[in-house]
Write a structure and sequence with these properties.
Layout (H helix, E strand, L loop, with lengths): L1 H23 L19 H11 L17 E6 L2 E6 L4 E4 L9 H14 L12 H5 L2 E6 L2 E3 L9 E7 L9 E5 L4 E3 L11 E3 L6
Antiparallel strand pairs: 1-2, 2-3, 3-9, 4-5, 6-7, 7-8
Length: 203
């Protein structure tokens, strides 16, 4: 009788431990770093604080940053090549626009790729500065501060984040991959590398 009672108690304890283990390792905790996806106006001070928050590498404003640890997967969907980052839950165009463009032409370009359904999706958008900076590597690879899994042509990409209190320069922040830094001026315009948010479970 005593042995049966102890066995019952032991089984109850094991059941409780199993419940806590399930909660602790719930698949809802994916380990994905979610960056801000909505546009925002940023001052230079805002940018520096963002670089420090995520320890992003920036050759001009935060040289000590180690860079974001990406987990890329190259994939071809409906004939279009994309790069999925399992660390941020973002899907990027491997390339982007074939030429630099002024800011006013960008909205039309984004609208066109959504109308065509690039890679089967119609929710492509400009990245925020923090999303774009997550691509910057601390060291050059193949001439650019970005993983060579991406096309090399788009060496400067536009973001959706505006520049606070400065109407003399370009209206939005950009990421210069040749220099490995975010910048706020490019007289020749910039390329576009669109992004979309996906739901992923980190490996």
């Amino acid at each position: 009788m005593k042995s049966s009672y102890l066995k019952t108690i032991l089984l109850e304890i094991l059941a409780i431990l199993a419940i806590f283990t399930f909660i602790s390792y719930s698949p809802l905790d994916t380990g994905i770093t979610k960056f801000r996806a909505k546009s925002k106006k940023l001052s230079l001070n805002d940018v520096v604080l963002m670089l420090k928050k995520y320890d992003f590498s920036d050759a001009l404003s935060y040289q000590s940053g180690k860079g974001f640890e990406n987990h890329f997967e190259l994939k071809v969907i409906e004939g279009d090549t994309v790069v999925i980052d399992h660390s941020s839950g973002l899907m990027w165009q491997r390339g982007g626009s074939s030429q630099k463009m002024k800011y006013k032409a960008v909205a039309r370009w984004i609208k066109d790729i959504n109308k065509k359904g690039f890679a089967g999706y119609k929710d492509w958008r400009l990245p925020t500065l923090e999303e774009a900076m997550s691509l910057v590597e601390p060291e050059k690879q193949n001439g650019l501060y970005i993983d060579p899994i991406f096309n090399k042509k788009q060496e400067i990409i536009l973001t959706c984040d505006g520049i606070k209190k400065d109407k003399l320069l370009n209206p939005n922040w950009m990421v210069e991959l040749y220099a490995g830094a975010c910048i706020n001026f490019s007289p020749d315009g910039s390329y576009v590398r669109a992004v979309r948010t996906v739901q992923l479970l980190k490996d």
